[in-house]
């Protein structure tokens, strides 16, 4: 437990309205205390530290100038929302962050009226802010009222095309709308692309730190004496490569760049914009991710995501593991394969570390592509790489691949292009909660003609499936694996290329067969051990493939047993549904087979540990055991498990 920081002024702030009576000097003190409280809280909970530290002053300034919750502050992605939560009546619960029954790590509408729009994926804030602005002007009616809409979006998130779609629409509509570009030169990984370079030039070649020059793109907002000077500054910059011309061409007035850690710049600009803005305006704010906490500032990711840590040293409390992470198994095997095949390349969307591709980027930089927060582009880019004779691995989290689904269908599947989809964070992921759960990819990939869909039961299987994907050229292929450490199985020296559509038998038994797809296999084995003490020995099989199904194995299991249970870490409509379709078409149910399918429930499961989340989903060993007893008609002793 870290020592609580001394925060006398912050202690007086129960809600944003309490900031209104403070002097600018006191607001600076509130920001300092808020930074210390954020560091102390995250040291106990873990979570996204660096992003929040970068917007402490901006958070205080926004809540002191605007009238939240009537005015809507929409944090893009919302990794940076912890200081906002502390200021908006949730300080007493901030140490429950990302825990079971606690505060979400992201903004969440059901949690507070100060969270007008939920977010955990990027590039949505401008669309949402524009929606609130139009609702306001059309007479929309909500309990908190509708005032200004302020989108706070990072330079990394601005690489997502949806942000530009929204800006283009906002410029056309001309509604009063405030966009704050939080430019910290970092998203999760360092930002990539021409846009990032453009933003860098805005202040590297011509620093505009003086308030008078700040307003060059919105001279009409300034008091009369400043307008002429500002107009001259703007005219002088018209022909230069720097300035807000990109944003102005989209219909936005441009202010900036300004120092996002200097209240003497932030407060006057925000007050001026609040008083005078009439149409869409973009305020370009420069910040430093991890600002004010030396260990975060020194870290490569600026303290993006941390475990619990010691405040004094910054050392994270990560328990040692006896098993490698699934992500590292994939990354290492891909590098090994790339060493012998120069056609293998890799694509990710701003997550080189999270997907295990950082090693590939280090060894083979010319064959590794981080496309920024742009999943749609990444999928189509990979499709064309495949069409051009390369062997692309498109490594994207399950929850983020959803954003590129149209491209998976049209640009990959319809064209039968051999893109290899490495789907990380499959199943329930723990503290990030429902927004990051990989619940749907089995269903949304397996319904596509020609798509091969695999799931690794353990880290050794993942090694085999990576090699299998590399060797497969007949069309698209996907393999999914969870977050975290493996099962601790013995790792093979060499990967084996699996026969497409063939599962494996784990143990022979009688009466009931359990057909597992993915890493629930370990829980199935635990359930089987407990069942054996009751005189029941189930047959266990690992499907390996949701598409194509191992028809022979499944029909044999159905023929040899009175009951068949499937289990998968995905929503209804996935593996179990495909098995049921096969059994129905083959007339198996006509002869009385008892069939059950264990899938994720039809609800969004809030953050908790993965074990607790799977308890909610009723997919841990005790619930698997109970399902077997129920389907066999064996009465359970004591309380019936859900």
């Amino acid at each position: 437990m870290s020592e609580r920081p001394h925060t006398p002024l912050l202690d007086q702030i129960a809600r944003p309205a309490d900031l209104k009576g403070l002097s600018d000097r006191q607001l600076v003190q509130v920001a300092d205390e808020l930074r210390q409280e954020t560091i102390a809280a995250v040291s106990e909970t873990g979570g996204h530290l660096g992003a929040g530290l970068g917007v402490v002053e901006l958070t205080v300034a926004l809540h002191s100038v605007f009238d939240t919750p009537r005015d809507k502050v929409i944090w893009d992605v919302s990794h940076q929302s912890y200081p906002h939560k502390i200021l908006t009546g949730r300080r007493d619960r901030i140490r429950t962050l990302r825990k079971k029954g606690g505060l979400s790590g992201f903004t969440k509408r059901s949690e507070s009226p100060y969270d007008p729009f939920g977010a955990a994926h990027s590039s949505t804030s401008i669309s949402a802010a524009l929606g609130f602005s139009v609702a306001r002007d059309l007479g929309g009616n909500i309990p908190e009222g509708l005032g200004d809409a302020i989108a706070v979006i990072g330079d990394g998130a601005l690489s997502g095309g949806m942000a530009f779609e929204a800006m283009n629409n906002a410029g056309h509509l001309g509604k009063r709308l405030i966009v704050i570009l939080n430019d910290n030169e970092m998203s999760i990984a360092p930002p990539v692309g021409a846009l990032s370079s453009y933003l860098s030039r805005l202040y590297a070649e011509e620093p505009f730190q003086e308030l008078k020059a700040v307003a060059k793109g919105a001279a009409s907002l300034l008091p009369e004496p400043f307008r002429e000077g500002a107009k001259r500054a703007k005219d002088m910059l018209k022909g230069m490569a720097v300035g807000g011309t990109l944003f102005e061409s989209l219909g936005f007035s441009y202010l900036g760049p300004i120092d996002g850690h200097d209240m003497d710049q932030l407060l006057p600009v925000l007050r001026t914009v609040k008083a005078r803005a009439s149409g869409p305006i973009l305020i370009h704010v420069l910040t430093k991710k991890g600002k004010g906490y030396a260990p975060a500032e020194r870290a490569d990711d600026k303290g993006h995501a941390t475990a619990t840590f010691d405040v004094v040293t910054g050392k994270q409390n990560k328990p040692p593991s006896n098993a490698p992470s699934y992500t590292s198994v994939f990354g290492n095997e891909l590098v090994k394969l790339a060493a012998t095949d120069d056609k293998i390349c890799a694509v990710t969307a701003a997550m080189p570390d999270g997907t295990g591709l950082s090693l590939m980027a280090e060894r083979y930089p010319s064959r590794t592509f981080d496309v920024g927060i742009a999943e749609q582009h990444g999928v189509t880019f990979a499709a064309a790489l495949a069409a051009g004779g390369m062997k692309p691995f498109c490594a994207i989290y399950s929850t983020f691949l959803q954003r590129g689904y149209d491209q998976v269908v049209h640009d990959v599947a319809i064209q039968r292009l051999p893109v290899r989809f490495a789907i990380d964070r499959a199943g329930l992921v723990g503290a990030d909660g429902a927004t990051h759960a990989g619940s749907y990819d089995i269903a949304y990939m397996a319904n596509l003609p020609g798509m091969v869909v695999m799931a690794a039961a353990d880290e050794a299987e993942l090694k085999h499936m990576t090699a299998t994907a590399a060797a497969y050229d007949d069309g698209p292929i996907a393999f999914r694996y969870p977050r975290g450490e493996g099962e601790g199985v013995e790792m093979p020296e060499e990967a084996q290329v699996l026969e497409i559509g063939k599962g494996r038998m784990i143990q022979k038994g009688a009466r009931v067969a359990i057909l597992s797809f993915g890493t629930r296999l370990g829980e199935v084995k635990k359930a089987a051990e407990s069942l054996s003490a009751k005189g029941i020995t189930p047959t266990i099989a690992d499907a390996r493939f949701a598409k194509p199904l191992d028809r022979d194995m499944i029909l044999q299991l159905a023929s040899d047993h009175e009951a068949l249970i499937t289990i998968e870490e995905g929503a209804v409509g996935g593996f179990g549904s495909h098995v049921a379709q096969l059994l129905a078409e083959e007339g198996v149910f006509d002869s009385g087979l008892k069939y059950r399918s264990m899938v994720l429930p039809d609800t969004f499961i809030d953050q908790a540990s993965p074990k607790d989340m799977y308890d909610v989903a009723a997919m841990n060993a005790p619930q698997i055991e109970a399902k077997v007893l129920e389907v066999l008609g064996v009465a359970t002793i004591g309380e019936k498990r859900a």
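Confidence is low (pLDDT under 50) at residues 202-217, 228-242, 637-642. The CA atoms of residues 17 and 67 lie 7 Å apart.
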